[in-house]
Amino acid sequence: MMTDLNDGTQGAPMLRLNEVHTEVDGYHILEGVSFSVPRHQVTMLLGRNGVGKTSTLRTIMGLWRASCGSIELNGKGIENLSTMNIARKGLHYVPENMGIFASLSVSENLRIACRSQPLEGERLDWILQLFPALHTFWHWPAGHLSGGQKQMLAIARAVIEPCDLLLVDEPSKGLAPAIIQNLIRAFEALKSEQTTILMVEQNLHMAQRLGDHLVVMEDGHTLHEGSMADFAADSKRQTEWLGLSMEASV
Amino acid sequence: MTAYRSSDTPEATAPTGPLKPRTHWRQRRDVQAAALVPLVALVAAVLIGDLNAWLTLTLAGLAMGMMLFIMTSGFTLVFGLMDVLNFGHGAFISLGAFCGFSVMLSMDGWRLSESLWLNLGAFGAAAIVAMTAAALMSWLFERILVRRVYGDHLMQILITMGGLIVAEQLIYVFWGGHDIPMLKPPAFQGGVQWGGLVFEKYRLLAVVLGGLLFIGLLLVFKKTRLGLLIRAGVENREMVESFGYNVRCLFVLVFMAGSALAALGGIMWGVYDEVITPHLGQSLMITVFIVAIIGGLGSIEGCFIAALVVGLLSNYIGFLAPKLALVSTIGLMVVVLLWRPQGLVPVSEGGK
Hints:
The complex is a heterodimer of chains A (250) and B (352).
Chain A: E1 15-24, E2 27-37, E3 42-46, H1 53-60, E4 66-73, E5 76-77, H2 83-88, E6 91-94, H3 106-113, H4 122-130, H5 132-136, H6 147-159, E7 165-169, H7 177-192, E8 196-200, H8 204-210, E9 213-218, E10 221-227, H9 228-232, H10 235-242
Parallel strand pairs in A: 3-8, 3-9, 6-7, 7-8
Antiparallel strand pairs in A: 1-2, 1-4, 4-5, 9-10
Helix pairs in contact in A: 3-6
Chain B: H1 29-34, H2 36-48, H3 51-82, H4 89-106, H5 108-111, H6 116-144, H7 153-175, E1 180-181, E2 191-194, E3 197-200, H8 201-223, H9 225-235, H10 237-242, H11 247-273, E4 275-276, H12 280-295, H13 300-320, H14 325-339
Antiparallel strand pairs in B: 1-4, 2-3
């Protein structure tokens, strides 16, 4: 399932969107989204509410169909594949609502995510170390977890099997600052494993801490693509594009 | 093609280390709902006052409930997994009954024998043939009709109702339009005495068979990977797909299994009534739909509880106030929906 990362395409982006348009129920939601997700880096997808960030992730994952444009994973088009086949290409997804199976136990939630191997071994130990709460509540129905624990479970599910590209939609949404710090640590651990991540985030503090690459969206299309460091230093653009400044949000 | 495997047993994969014991959480809706069954029986016992009559009615109610459960389980799961309202489900009840009766009528040697085992053999053969036929038919039904109307409930109701009518007409073509009578095999007739009480044999058989089936289904759901995926799919289909599973394939499997169960329910019902008519499925479909609604669409535990309550209540009311018998099921639905608009055991909407 895991594609060979050392096949000479090291410099090429892992994922490339080219003029992607998406229509849902007759509404034109994405109107030309183009950006790249560099390999082994964390790409932050920013923008105001309702500009199409979540729709972009859903379109990549095949949950919504792109009406035109192309989405290439390692140079091969995936825009016509089913969600199942996109997942099997090594794209793992943490949706905005976390997609927890509430009536299933924590262990069952994780077991579903282990499609190609049993739920055990070093990888599981590593994840339980990262998120000790999951171990504590191993047999609990996941619906009884707190918001932060659910988010941790959602992320754990997405990374329990090694993945090529992790799509995460607003992991910090509705969580207390202390928990956000935990999440940042977890993502830093993933980053040190060279996982490629595409993350939608509203929390600029988190975005700045984790992001290498940056994509800003506005009204269904990409407004800017560049390095996170440059953007972090440019408060004028922060205000202009996101309507707030980095200092103002923690 | 299937992505799920049943090879990795669930419990072998728990991590080592201290585990917090399973804690009882408050507000178990399923437990509260399950309490309805003894509650209804108890209230009825007080109202009826006669132990013998009450036991007979209770056994009859449980037998009816078990048969309803067998018929409804497939319908409710198909809705839970793919949001498909399949009113054609009734066609498989009829089809099962007719195939089963044909097989049994052709096995006179076994069917008319006094031996319980030969009788059961004839019944078993009928069940296998009918369930296989229904599974195959439902595969076609899914391909031809249901697949085209995903996500559109109105179209689903219209086209599967149409399918039900066509299937019923096909029964007229193959079996003729007349009712088919058939006495119960000798070993199923009459009752067994226990103390001063009499239990009708076939009802006992139906209760045992239904109970075993429910336990079997629960084991599949709770202990196998296939069951795990079905439960997850009922809650959030998109997410199961996002993990790389073939939910379509899973759905077709559930559709076929559910139709096979409908066929089994059809035979059991037919043998119980000792006569089958081509519109058997259509008339039962209303009750099946009501049971699924009362239980909570998509919930297998809810379906079981609802089927038992409906079975018991219609027998009790039929005895206590025969004039109300016709409306008892509808009345129950109204009361339950006022209490729990999502049904007795609502399927968690956790991830949606």
